[in-house]
Amino acid sequence: MNVLILNPRKNYIELFYYKNNSLIVRDMIFAGLKDKIYKDYYFNILNNYFMKSELSPDYLIIKSLYGGDIFNKPVLYNNLVLKQLNKIVNKSPLQINLLIEIINGCRRLFDTVPIVLFFETSFFHKLPVYEKMYAIDPDISNNNGFFRFGYHGIHHEAALNFIYDSEIISKFNNRILSVYLDKNPEIVAIKNKKPVTVTSGATPLEGIMGEKKCGKLDPSIVFILIKKLKIGLEKINYLLTQQSGLYGLTGKKISFLDLYNLNVCEFEQAKTIFEYNIQLEIGSGISAIGGLDYIIFSGNYSEIGKYLLKDLNGYLNHINNNLKIYFFNDSIGDAVLKLFNYHFFKKKIMI
Amino acid sequence: MNILIFNCGSSSLKYKMIEMPSKKEILFGEAQRINSVTAESSRIIHNNLKKEKKIFFVKMKSHLEAFEEIIKIINKENIVPDVFGHRLVHGGSYFFEPVILSEDILEKLEQIKDLAPIHNPPAINLILACRKSCPDFKQILVFDTAFHSTIPDYAYTYAIPEQLAKNLNIRKYGFHGTSHKYVMKEACCYLNISAGNINAVSCHLGSGGASLCAIKKGVSVDNTMGVSPLQGLVMSTRCGDIDSAVTLNLLRKNDQDVNEIEKLFNNKSGILGLTNSSSDVRDSIPDNYHSSFKTLPRSLQLYIWRIKKYLGAYLAVTYPTNAVIFTDTIGEEIPLVRKLICRCFGYTGLTVDEYKNNNIGQYPADISGKNSKIKVLVIKTNEELEIALNVYKIMVENKKAVK
Fold first, then answer.
1. Predicted TM-score (pTM) of this structure
2. Of A137, A237, A248, which has the smallest distance from its Cβ to B160's Cβ?
3. What ipTM does the predicted assembly reach?
């Protein structure tokens, strides 16, 4: 079975091609994420790429960051799905328009290949309402879709399946923290296979600081910035999403991996801030699920997980001296493929 | 020395006259539910020299009106204060210790007024009213943020461009410091632990504002509030934590009207925003002590859930924790809230004795379960006494300096 997976990112589309579950091609197709998407823009980009390649997928999977309340599991693309996508386009216009354009491009190129859509937010549709809601007028939240989602559900779900495949999980040891370590880290506390709390918010901006995003802030800071800097909202948005986080603290465009591998003195403060961020969120997540049986680190930087627990060792030992820690280093392509196989064989996606 | 302390909360004005150094309380009271949309009307509960409790139902639309009503009541007691002490919520980057009011100080207060838009303006108005009615009296200001000056840089730094944060003094300041400090000292006495050795989480759950404080070796190492008292827990009218992108989105939809959204988050959110009827969390609390979390009104679920998550975070960073302390109106008076917050922390060894929790005779009260590894204490806060101690100290020092 040949599976082609496309992962649209900000400036490129990440591509994975698997033949009988073995990775054959991993590539990047450069394409800027546009505020306005011109007709045939993505078709032309994809066409240029696939004309030169000899890929013949049996299934084509496209990953989307956002699926709103509607897409709580992977779906096989059809006209009804398109209608549903159009219903949530106003909640995340950039992501959904991009997704629709890529789907259209792919349908023209691979007209007989079934297209399956995976959404990062699906895993979180069972988050409890009191976790999803913000303490503002519910009408405002409902009208604008201001509810907490997670944004790395595919990694968390794949990591969760990995634990369930490796361990005998019962109701006595089902409290799991999934720590996704990448450019924008995210922690989910899971009990009985259901997410109970997640660090990200209505958007990925909230939560743990990222390489460029600020993470959790006092809400007043936005007001202070507008009043004192007298700059517009787009500049504030750029400042918080592109010039903050690790970059804002160090002034250098480095990754979390660099932070640990380079061992530079001037990065020490940023490191302690990041580690403290993580420690608080781990403590918070544990309280949400009433204890802890497993921690699983996933994502491209999963290896730095071992450094993040050093100040919590005493506490973690105290709460469970039989705690199991896993490192799960799958790429997004591997994670999507595993979930695809899982859903495909369990016939959760009717193809 | 008779010190009249004013403690301006977001919807209350507490006052207390304390004789120092004897610490004898001469009279005290509280103007409650000032300008708030609640099920009950505003009132002043006054305890006079003879320890008689009187309730005056008066309409008070602002803290200034409350002050005027309180002065009328005190004047009838024929007792005169020697000095005024004020609790100021936010000292910004100017004030990390108590100060005597002067023109220069007033100017600085004006500059940091917006950092705590619900609290600092009424407190400053109150100070001006005191100065107008008693111009010869010294006024000492004690800042809530002072106790949190020990928060380490890794906890007070936001992940925004470093230079920008420095230029605009954007950092976590922390609040309710006067209360957190007082109950921490009381817990030390009660548990017979020296102040430099206690690790604790103090839960100041007021009728208006609320915050948790992580205390390690007797000093504040973190607080749920931030650069302003808006961050953190769900409060009576404040939303607490919210995604910054939500703020930007709302601003976009409201023609970038910062004041409007700031007002929405500070005055129309929290319990009020969620219930659309009352800003007082007590109005959402069921009478039945055995109510489960699932049956609570949504507003109360959010309120408790947020506290639980922060308590979990702070228990992790204060390990090994000696005590969890509940204080202020909700923390002291509502056993159901304490029960529901504590019930999931069995994994840390923390347990609560249901009977003790539901039958507090006197404060401080130890409501821990029999074998609880962490003490759970309910301590009546006395921010006014903590302020009086600070005021007395500064007055004595000032007197010595003049000599």
1. 0.91
2. A248
3. 0.93
